[in-house]
Design goal:
The protein contains 15 helices and no strands. By secondary structure, the protein is mainly alpha-helical. The radius of gyration is 20 Å and the shape is globular. The relative contact order is 0.16.
Length: 420
């Protein structure tokens, strides 16, 4: 059930993530332009992406804690303004070093956005938090699908590539002003007791104990750590695809630059379809904890087929299936983590997204190194290994879920969180 009073602020939050979908693939989509403008190579652009991860890594946990203390709005507004600065600054940056500074600031903005938005959505829609957080992935997919089309349009009309940076920057700034004027949900909101599929206040207090020794209670050093590691494996797959799928299309399959960029469109269209499917199935049939196992199994098959069938048609199909099966896994991992350990939503977000930031920091550098000393296929072999690890982690989390929540097997998967 959605609270109508929360819809205006939620609209602004989702607009931010639509723009973030563009922001997230901006550097990879402008690889050829930026290597020339900044006098670097593909490894240099990977280093910029890692700098974003670095800025995110070292601010995310503390921003989550501060978000719990001072509220969601200041961090979300600051994130929009900092992202606007990054998007304006990169095309105008005179040196690679200046671009690196801007990339670190962009990482800080990303941490602010995540640590404020996810808790705010859970507080806005406590009885449908799974669907509310999964919709974030849908808006990211819309933005990421639109950006390559905008770039291709500018390329075909000889328009300065910087406009694909400037347009989302302007909307980020305007949306930050809009959200500054909005009233955010009460951080102390309590869920309705006895709601179908919800975690009662008493059980939430039990699940909030990170050091429980009872086998039937959550164990942070078991399922907690596994969920945090899933916060690394899921984004690793996402970043490999978003950063290197166009390069894969050109070097492994022989596509043109514009054709390879369209692979990102198909990838994000698959992701968008997945979000609508998840919003429906999470209401009645499937729990988030099951999705974080089912989806990686599908993506493993799709990555294998991508390497096995070397053709444009196969690449389009596999890109769509990979987009479908990666979509929402990170958000649902956060939702499952919140169900196990519901003490502080901002802090929990910090745990998961710190692992995500490690992925964003290490994977671009490591894959850039692989590409420099090997072929693009080696990068996607790495994706298969990481995917298999994610499946193993999800199997254990599902096993522990059945032990911790045996009475919830017949209930709706919608998650209601205690905010204490």
């Amino acid at each position: 059930m959605m609270k109508r009073s929360s819809i205006p602020v939620a609209t602004g939050l989702y607009v931010n993530y639509l723009l973030f979908g563009m922001f997230n693939i901006m550097l990879a989509s402008h690889m050829s332009f930026l290597t020339e403008h900044l006098h670097t190579d593909q490894a240099g652009i990977s280093l910029l992406v890692s700098a974003m991860g670095f800025g995110r890594l070292f601010t995310l946990y503390i921003s989550g804690v501060l978000s719990d203390r001072y509220g969601r709005k200041p961090f979300i507004v600051a994130a929009g303004l900092l992202m606007a600065v990054f998007l304006v600054g990169i095309p105008l940056s005179p040196t690679f070093e200046m671009a690196m500074v801007l990339a670190v600031l962009a990482g800080v903005a990303n941490s602010f956005l995540d640590s404020g938005t996810y808790p705010a959505l859970i507080e806005a829609f406590p009885q449908s938090s799974g669907s509310a957080t999964v919709l974030v992935r849908g808006f990211i997919s819309i933005g990421a699908a639109f950006l390559p089309l905008m770039i291709i349009f500018f390329m075909n009309h000889d328009i300065f590539y910087g406009f694909s940076f400037f347009i989302p920057a302007l909307i980020f700034a305007l949306n930050a002003i809009y959200l500054f004027r909005m009233k955010f949900p009460d951080m102390r909101v309590q869920p309705n007791k006895g709601q179908s599929g919800g975690t009662s206040v008493s059980s939430a207090k039990q699940t909030g104990n990170l050091k429980a020794n009872d086998p039937s209670k959550p164990r942070f050093w078991q399922e907690g750590v596994c969920l945090i590691l899933l916060g690394f494996t899921g984004p690793t797959l996402l970043y490999i695809v978003q950063l290197w799928l166009p390069t894969f299309g050109q070097q492994f399959i022989g596509m043109t630059e514009s054709e390879s960029l369209r692979l990102l469109v198909y990838y994000n269209m698959g992701s968008l379809v997945s979000v609508f499917v998840l919003v429906i199935v999470l209401r009645k049939w499937v729990k988030p904890v099951h999705i974080i196992l089912i989806y990686p199994c599908i993506s493993l098959l799709a990555f294998g087929a991508l390497l096995l069938f070397k053709s444009g048609a196969a690449a389009i199909i596999c890109a769509s299936v990979i987009g479908f099966s990666i979509s929402g896994v990170l958000q649902l991992t956060l939702t499952v983590m919140s169900e196990f350990f519901s003490q502080r939503k901002g802090q929990i977000t910090g745990f998961i997204y710190t692992a995500t930031s490690l992925s964003y920091t290490l994977i671009p550098v490591f894959t850039g190194f692989l590409l420099k000393h090997s072929q693009i296929s080696s990068v996607f072999m790495l994706a298969i290994i990481v995917n298999a690890l994610g499946i193993a982690l999800a199997v254990f989390v599902n096993f522990r879920y059945s032990a911790v929540f045996p009475a919830k097997r017949e209930l709706s998967p919608q998650i209601v969180l205690d905010t204490k």
